[in-house]
């Protein structure tokens, strides 16, 4: 009897030890970089309504999301030796998608505000922005001051720094929010809005693509320092991934490739409008 119990005990112990060994000793936690390498794919979330950062084009009959962010994303994927997958969603839901692990990174022309820093981490900056008011070409000279926009319908993309800036600085205007920036710029073109608050880099793109439709108003908005840096959104726990990404960004910046990629994205947009 004793012997039989001992036998059972030893075989259970052996099974336990085997499980322990197979599962990699149970203790060592793999980092985010290793997890991505194991998957073989880096999943980047974006909101493709933001040329030249991210926008859709049709290539060989297939819709594809391209832009500055996607070029930088490809470099990060290449650095880890994995494939890149772009997930397109609306800007206001990106942070929860990241937290719920539906995506590995946010690359959506996203500014690293103090509020966002409370919930996620960010890479070092890879582009600088400031805000302007995009208007119809015919109104180019009509809005020299904030007061001149009083009572006017002004569009801002929901949950963006533009919304926060407009709520503070254009208090006497009527703000209209949409989850996609492209809906607002279309409404502006159709005369349903008097202006759209957006970053200069985005406004420039509309001016270059539709020179007879849009202009930048004379009115000056203040862009707070903390709303100027476009960074990559990363989960707070993924410290190893942040380190790796910052290294890639430093390299791309020093070699002048960031600048080149931005210009290339503008060119692709102009050719595919
Ligand atoms: N830079 C602004 C922000 O971080 C707007 C970004 C909007 N991005 C987009 N892909 N639509 O709030």
From TrEMBL:
This is ABC transporter substrate-binding component. Keywords: Signal. It comes from Ligilactobacillus ruminis (strain ATCC 27782 / RF3) (Lactobacillus ruminis). Pfam families: SBP_bac_3. Residues 41-265 form the Solute-binding protein family 3/N-terminal domain.
């Amino acid at each position: 009897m004793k012997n039989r119990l001992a036998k059972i005990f030893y075989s259970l112990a052996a099974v336990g030890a085997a499980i322990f060994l197979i599962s990699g000793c149970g203790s060592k936690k793999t980092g985010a970089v290793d997890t991505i390498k194991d998957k073989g794919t880096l999943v980047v979330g974006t909101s493709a309504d933001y040329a030249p950062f991210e926008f859709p084009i049709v290539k060989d009959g297939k819709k594809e999301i391209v832009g500055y962010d996607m070029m930088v994303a490809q470099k990060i994927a290449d650095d880890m030796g994995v494939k890149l997958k772009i997930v397109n969603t609306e800007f206001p839901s990106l942070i929860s998608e990241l937290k719920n692990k539906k995506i590995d990174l946010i690359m959506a022309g996203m500014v690293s505000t103090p509020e966002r820093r409370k919930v996620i981490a960010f890479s070092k900056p890879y582009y600088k922005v400031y805000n302007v008011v995009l208007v119809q070409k015919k109104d180019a000279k009509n809005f020299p001051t904030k007061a001149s926009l009083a009572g006017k319908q002004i569009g801002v993309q929901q949950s963006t720094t533009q919304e926060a800036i407009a709520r503070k600085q254009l208090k006497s205007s009527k703000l209209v929010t949409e989850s996609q920036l492209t809906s607002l710029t279309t409404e502006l073109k159709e005369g349903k809005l008097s202006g759209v608050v957006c970053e200069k880099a985005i406004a420039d793109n509309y001016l270059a693509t539709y020179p007879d439709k849009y202009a930048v108003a004379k009115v000056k908005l203040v862009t707070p320092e903390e709303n100027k840096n476009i960074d990559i959104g990363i989960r707070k726990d993924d410290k190893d991934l942040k380190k790796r990404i910052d290294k890639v960004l430093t390299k791309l910046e020093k070699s002048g490739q960031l600048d080149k990629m931005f210009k290339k994205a503008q060119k692709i947009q102009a050719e595919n409008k």
